[in-house]
Specification:
- The chain is built from 16 helices and 24 strands.
- The protein has 603 residues and is of the alpha+beta class.
- It has three domains: 193 residues, 2-Layer Sandwich (Heat Shock Protein 90), CATH 3.30.565; 124 residues, Ribosomal Protein S5, domain 2 (2-Layer Sandwich); 200 residues, Ribosomal Protein S8, Chain: A, domain 1.
- An eight-stranded mixed sheet has the order 5-4-3-6-2-1-7-8.
- The longest helix is centred in the middle third of the chain and has 21 residues.
- The radius of gyration is 33 Å and the shape is globular.
- 32% of the residues are buried.
């Protein structure tokens, strides 16, 4: 019997390793940018073509590499930062030349041009599928330029699973955003298909957040700052009134590395609990500085998950820090001394005499006396029990002219005993059916009705637009603007009219005609957020997500009082839907308490 275990060729091993680190063009952008930062670059240019499928090029003015280092950087397990196992737990840097480059070179055509300041000539290296095609000495600028072309050219199964260009572009900008937010002193420029789409000059942290998120976020930001023996925590959180439903800008960074941490997210949300509803999310940009030996950044290949040595203690510190900053913000009201109606504050004049204010009292006043003087007589309210009871006498009787008890108002498995409906706690609609009592959730019912209406409008392109008197401006991040372009055609089918103002700003000029008194900016943002959370390449699924997002936003909320006519219309419309029992995302709309259940409860 022949042996069956053998060593993989390096090219195949590198492709397997690349599958862990390089998942899409955005992964290439992230790794190359982190290498540039580790090379102490101050200016980083990112050039992208076809959302990274054709080209990802990163140009930096860092310290560059020698000819030998340039060649070694593409070997597996080659690094400039680790010599012993202890070094793994003492890293402040993000990436290191070699580990990522070997994976990138395994699945793309790569060109490297690099030169150190002390060298007269630089190195030009070409690699394809882990194979070195050429290595030459050339003249080039100080720093490093890496071009990654035709990603996954030799792994077609991986290439065909890439998403649409807009989705891949959005992922690229997400990675750029995370890196730019921890390096405000670095200048970043992004050029897409020969057009500059982003330029971030050096700034402080608050300015960088505004550069990335738009000017509107500046008024939201509350600074947090706390230093303990375990960690230094600083950054910004948003004021409670700017919390929004759906996706928010929420970032954690540890030692200048972006991380995901649901446990710490819970600490932030706990601090906000008394100030916002459970469905709202605040923005936050929170930075941890800890000793590197108290965290493990290597528990996930992309290093976005980090394990802390003192997680519970840090949870408490974070929660208290955020809560204290929110408390300080709420305790100090803003006073505008420039308003025209501001009161005049008298100036103290020591030459003028002052007198004690006089207090007038009534010595005959007795608080226990029913009255003192006819003008202040207090009378007890008269309780007319007969009047209060009147009105319940005809409860449950059919209204004159109404259908009889067995009339059917709509086609379903249940038949209404009476067309009369009752609203319970301004949340549920109660109505009788032959088998018992039907309970309908009014908000979910309206979501189902609107969902099918909006989905039909998108599919049939029959939405009617209503021009707004004053167009509203909405500022988006680069990733949000990319998401908007994915759904803009379908939004136009609903009746939205939007124009591009440049620099990721848009004007909302028209909204669907059936919407009244709606916050157009919040509605558009919620639809963008929903698309970013559940982005899909399948057109039908995208239509459904868009229709559901709009239905959730515009449906009547729990707590709204409905008239008998409104309840009757809603029930009729609900049971005309294709799926009246559940919302599009699977939540129950209707339940029935049978007569037998009620009788058992009353035994």
């Amino acid at each position: 019997m022949t042996d069956i275990i053998h060593l993989l060729p390096d090219s195949i091993a590198n492709q397997i390793a690349a599958g862990e680190v390089i998942q899409r063009p955005a992964s290439v952008v992230k790794e190359l940018m982190e290498n540039s930062l580790d090379a102490n670059a101050k200016h980083i240019h990112i050039i992208i073509k076809d959302a990274g499928r054709t080209l990802v090029q990163v140009i930096d003015d860092g310290k560059g590499m020698s000819m030998t280092d340039a060649r070694m950087a593409f070997e597996r397990h080659a690094t400039s930062k680790i010599k012993t196992s202890e070094d793994l737990f003492a890293l402040y840097t993000r990436g290191f030349r070699g580990e990522a480059l070997a994976s990138v070179a395994a699945i793309a055509h790569v060109e490297l041009k690099t030169r150190r300041a002390e060298d007269e000539m630089g190195t030009w290296l070409k690699i394809a599928g882990s194979k070195v095609e050429s290595q030459e000495t050339i003249f080039c600028a100080v720093g490093t330029t890496i071009s990654v072309k035709n990603i996954f050219f030799n792994v077609p199964a991986r290439r065909k699973f890439l998403k649409s260009n807009e989705t891949e572009r959005r992922n690229i900008f997400t990675e750029i955003e995370r890196i730019a937010l921890v390096n405000p002193d670095i200048e970043f420029t992004v050029i897409e298909n020969d057009v500059q789409t982003m330029h971030l000059p050096p700034a402080n942290l608050r300015q960088r957040i505004v550069q990335m998120q738009g000017k509107g976020i500046n008024q939201q930001l509350i600074e947090i700052n706390e230093e303990t023996t375990l960690a230094k925590i600083h950054g910004y959180v948003s004021t409670p009134q700017f919390a929004r439903k759906g996706r928010a800008n929420q970032f954690f960074f540890v030692n200048n590395r972006y991380i995901r941490h649901p446990f710490f997210h819970k600490a932030v949300m706990t601090a906000y609990e008394p100030l916002i509803s459970a469905t709202e999310n605040p923005n936050y940009f929170i930075y941890f500085e800890v000793e590197p030996d108290t965290i493990d950044v290597n528990i996930h290949p992309t290093k976005t998950e980090v394990k802390f040595e003192n997680e519970r203690a840090l949870w408490q510190i974070l929660m208290v820090t955020v809560k204290e900053s929110l408390g300080k913000f709420n305790a100090i009201p803003s006073i505008d001394f420039d308003t025209a109606d501001a009161p005049d504050i008298p100036i103290f004049d020591p030459s003028k005499s002052t007198s004690m204010p006089k207090v007038n009292i009534n010595p005959d006043y007795n608080p226990f006396q029913p009255s003192y003087g006819e003008s202040t007589r207090i009378s007890k309210p008269r309780l007319d029990w007969e009047q209060m009871y009147r009105g319940f006498e005809n409860e449950g009787k059919p209204m004159s002219g109404s259908p009889d008890a067995d009339a059917t108002l709509f086609q379903s498995n249940e038949s209404l005993v009476s067309p009369k409906h009752y609203q319970y706690k301004e949340k549920y609609i109660l109505t009788s059916v032959k088998s018992g009592l039907m309970i309908i959730d009014q908000h979910r019912s309206h979501v189902r009705i609107l969902f099918e209406k909006y989905l039909s409008q998108i599919t049939n392109r029959k939405g009617i637009s209503q021009r707004v008197l004053f167009p509203e401006r909405i500022e988006l991040t680069s990733s949000e603007a990319s998401s908007l372009s994915e759904i803009q055609e379908d939004m136009e089918a609903l009746g939205f009219e939007m124009s591009d103002l440049g620099n990721n700003s848009f004007a909302i000029q028209g909204i669907p005609s059936e919407l009244q008194n709606v916050d157009a900016v919040a509605l558009v943002r919620s639809m963008i957020d929903k698309n970013m959370e559940t982005g899909s390449n399948i057109q039908e699924q995208m239509h459904e997500k868009l229709a559901l997002s709009m239905a959730n936003f515009t449906a009547i909320p729990a707590g709204k009082s409905l008239t008998e006519e409104e309840m009757l219309r809603m029930v009729d419309q609900l049971f005309a839907c294709q799926s009246p029992n559940h919302t599009p995302d699977g939540k129950s709309i209707i339940t029935v308490i049978s007569d037998d259940e009620m009788e058992n409860k009353l035994k």
